[in-house]
Design goal:
Blueprint: E1 10-14, H1 17-20, H2 33-36, H3 39-42, H4 45-50, H5 52-65, H6 73-85, E2 89-93, H7 99-103, E3 108-110, E4 113-120, E5 126-128, E6 150-154, H8 164-173, E7 176-180, H9 192-198, E8 202-207, E9 219-222, H10 225-236
Parallel strand pairs: 1-2, 1-7, 2-3, 7-8, 8-9
Antiparallel strand pairs: 4-5, 4-6
The structure holds adenosine-5-diphosphoribose.
């Protein structure tokens, strides 16, 4: 059903599920990343301090995988949605892969950071780091300061997600909030749906399984995003075949 017009203000929140059909593992499924690694060992500042080699090799493996994966039709559908809405769409992703930007999304916030980038622990410079020299097993030293070591530019547990002020402001004002491929486990991302709902936005969920916060949705579509999102976007913008 045609839901949107070019002036509708839309916030889309994506999670690991939107990249699953591109071959990137999610976190909490049966064969998920957190089945193989303890979060506290590889995704916390303490884990990095305790065993930087373990954390570095975990992220170098995920960074190198970016060279082998491609966006899927769900990423492409969100590019179509941005072409229709322009500045009225804000895409907020929890994902640290680069598939949304490679598909062509522009109004994009990576609230949990980006695998493509590394950040100096000392001077905090953030560098685009997908050259061969950045993808080896050895640590990478900072080019901007004499002794800095680069860490993954990833928001670890207990660290503050990026751009929360901008994200909250957009969620406060949006008419429609769409969550795609996220289990609703991790805050503050999982709390955005409740804020949108409280502010009177029309809330839509698209997910393989009903997420934790499924009751907050006005409309829920169960399935693989790569399979069902393109048709949903076509319906929402009213491009269905007459
Ligand atoms: N299409 C749609 N949804 C899918 C698909 C698919 N093809 N495959 C899996 N899903 C759904 C799963 O049902 C699950 O609800 O995607 C969701 C993935 O949930 P998680 O693995 O918990 O990933 P996510 O919600 O993105 O995790 C949030 O937790 O570990 C942290 O920082 C990490 O950003 C991550 C955050």
């Amino acid at each position: 059903m045609k839901l949107l017009n070019p002036n509708t203000r839309v916030v889309v929140l994506t999670g690991a599920g939107i990249s699953a059909e591109s071959g990137i593992r999610t976190f909490r499924a049966a064969e998920g990343l957190w089945e193989e690694h303890r979060i506290e060992d590889v995704a916390t500042p303490e884990g990095w301090r305790r065993d930087p080699e373990l954390v570095w090799s975990f992220y170098q493996g995920r960074r190198r995988q970016l060279l082998d994966v491609l966006p899927n039709p769900a990423h492409d559908a969100l590019v179509d949605l941005e072409e229709y809405l322009g500045e009225n769409l804000l895409l907020v992703t929890q994902n640290v892969d680069d598939l949304h930007s490679r598909a062509g999304s522009n109004n994009l916030i990576h609230m949990h950071g980006e695998l493509r980038k590394l950040r100096c622990e000392l001077c905090e410079v953030v560098v685009e780091a997908m050259e061969g020299v950045h993808l080896q097993d050895d640590f990478v030293t900072c080019q901007e300061c004499p002794t800095g070591r680069l860490r993954p530019h990833i928001v670890w547990f207990t660290e503050m997600p990026f751009d929360m002020e901008k994200i909250n402001a957009a969620v406060f004002e949006c008419d429609v909030f769409i969550a795609i491929g996220t289990s609703g486990h991790v805050y503050p991302a999982a709390g955005l749906l409740a804020i949108a709902q409280m502010r009177g936005a029309y809330c839509i969920g698209v997910n393989l399984d009903p997420p934790e916060n499924v009751d907050f949705f006005d409309e829920f579509h169960q399935g693989r995003a790569g399979e069902i999102l393109p048709d949903l976007v076509t319906q929402w913008v009213g491009n269905e075949e007459e």
